[in-house]
Amino acid sequence: MGNNETEHTPEGDLTMSTIFWPFRNAPSKSDTVVDYIDTGYNVNLCQNCDKELPQDSSERGILFCSEKCQQTAKTVRYGRSTARDGRYENDATVREALDIRIVMILGGGYPETARRLTPEQREAIFVRDGRVCQLCGAPATEIDHIKGSSSSPENLQAVCRVCNMAKAKASPRLATPEEQAEVYAIFDRIRATQPTRICDDERRWDKVWRKISADQKGHRHT
Description:
mainly alpha, Wheat Germ Agglutinin (Isolectin 2), domain 1, 42% helix
């Protein structure tokens, strides 16, 4: 991107594997917020989309209706945090990481549960592959699922971060109008001066989600 990067606007088609547009008027570390807007919360509803939660999910204290909603809220907090502390503006890898997270959300969310590996599984693959990226030969730092979400050793390979991110951004396509609207809504939440949902609050969420979960467990589902 050139020096006119900050002049880009969120208009027209969005290429799925590119940075959608930089933040404008995003919170920065100089915008110290003393008092938060009390966004509040409702139990038995998804904290991201307000969809009613199934009774069994409510009773277990689950706060989101899907992995996609959970990851959307996490991405909003990540975007708000990196915009506030300057990492988004100063670090291209942060911008790329946010781009990839949003692409994953548009695709239905990253299958985090299905792809979760134990430390023992990860170490076994690193040892098997000699701690070398199987795509470029650089030191390996991450484990890649070659195809799909199977965690069998045959479907896992050690890779470096650069190759893993490049693979995640492969096969670009243009976003549909519905996907564009979804991206705009995510960035609106990221760029808001105050968090618009309690799950967007990058400063408080880690401290309050357990209380919300406990309140939900104790609330009678109607």
